[in-house]
Amino acid sequence: MRKIIHVDMDAFYAAIEQRDRPELRGRPVIVGGRPDSRGVVCSASYEARAFGVSSAMGCFKAARLCPDAAFVEPDFPRYQAESKRIQAIFRDYTDLVEPLSLDEAYLDVTVNKVGETVATRIAETIRARIHAETGLTASAGVAPNKLAAKVASDRNKPDGLCVVHPSTVHAFIAGLPIESIPGIGPVTAARCRRLGIVVAADFLRHDEAELRRLFGSSADWFRSAAQGIDERPVRVGQERRSIGAEETFARDISDLAEACARLDAVAVRVAERLQRARCRTRTVTLKVRYADFNRITRSRSVSEPIDDAPTIGAIARELTAATAIGRTPVRLLGISCSHIDDTPRRQLRWNDGAADSL
After folding, report:
1. Do residues 11 and 138 share a domain?
2. What SS3 class is residue 41?
3. Environment class of 350 (CB within 10 Å of its CB; exposed 0-12, middle 13-18, buried 19+)
4. Of 106, 322, 114, 136, whose CA–CA distance to 232 is shortest?
5. Domain boundaries, position 50
6. Which of 8-17, 234-243, 270-279, 285-294 has the lowest mean pLDDT?
7. Which residue blocks in 195-228 are alpha helix, DSSP H?
8. What is the β-pairing status of strands 161-163 and 4-9?
9. For 223-244, b where at least 16 C-beta lie within 10 A, e where not — what string?
């Protein structure tokens, strides 16, 4: 039986700003774009969340919901530095650490560096150390698999701990809304609800053949997850899947030439990130979000890996022919590069026998 901890920092970016700027403590804080911009919320303090503000919400809407909020421009180098400090704490207990982002990670502590057989005690110690060493709070979920641990970490936020015993995993997952299952986004969730699948257990009302007909290759995962079964291991040093950049415009762009010029600028940023990571790409994807918020992507692969801005920009401009750019106003353009090739460069990574009790 695995012993998995999912650690999730509480309102990470906003909490760092409140810690470092005493005048922000106790106030609603929104990290992101300006309140009059078309940017999005990166992080919101719990004081701001009480007004309905959430991550990825438009800053203009967030300002309407919480007019007294303090809007703070993100300082990603500072957040990255804090993330490294926290991950160093994780690695005092296990080398099996899988960061999902700057503010959350899975830890497999089945066998650990401190010889502790109770994962709950490790989670408690890690949370206490994070608070003592950084002044920030973290919530954690402890469970025998990644799915249950991640859901559990959100159960008692902020500054909470939730433990799911192996004997209760099935019941714990069964009543969850389907959106809690990884792989189910808004489109799939809407389809599920049309089929009467509202909570995880509803998948089990359909036999395997019917689920495969409805959901294809994802059906087996949905059915297993609904039963609380998740065999995914904690993966260390996963290769980065993509590198990209995007720009949200202060005003909608309707002119094709202007859009292409903006894409060239985005391509420069993407190329710089590829070169800084010492890797190249074989697939370039153009991301477009129109003024009505509809989003499309178009991709093209090349036979030889590339990392230069002119080539990346040229491919992105060619891909505009398969979009409505120039005919329909655009609010966001982005370029991402996947099928990363770092050979013979260094591997590009996200980050440089036990008792039954949890």
Report:
1. yes
2. strand
3. middle
4. 106
5. 7-93+113-143
6. 234-243
7. 208-215, 219-226
8. unpaired
9. bebbebebeeebebeeeeeebb
Q: Is the pLDDT of residue 353 over 50?
A: no
Q: What is the CATH number of the domain that holds 257?
A: 3.30.1490.100
The model's pLDDT over 254-282, given as tens digits with 9 standing for 90+, comes to 999 999 999 999 999 898 888 877 788 88
Residue 355, domain member (yes or no): no
**Tokens 């009480």 appear where?**
50
Quick check: 87 and 97 in contact, CB under 8 A? Answer: yes
Roughly how many angstroms between the first and final C-alpha of the chain, as a whole number?
10
**Tokens coding 42:** 């990166």
Residue 346 has pLDDT above 80, yes or no: no
In terms of Cα–Cα distance, which of 115, 151, 107, 95 is closest to 3? 107
Residue among 322, 296, 324, 301 nearest 311 (CA) = 301
Cis peptide before 344 (omega within 30 of 0): yes
Query: Crossing angle for the helix pair 219-226 and 208-215, nearest 10 degrees?
Result: 130
Tokens representing 164?
């799911």
For the chain, give the number of residues: 358
Structure pTM?
Answer: 0.71
Contact 56, 43 (CB under 8 A): no
Q: Which residues are catalytic?
A: 104
> Is pLDDT above 70 for 355?
no
Residue 106 lies in a domain: no
Tokens of 340: 């990363």
Same domain, 124 and 202: no
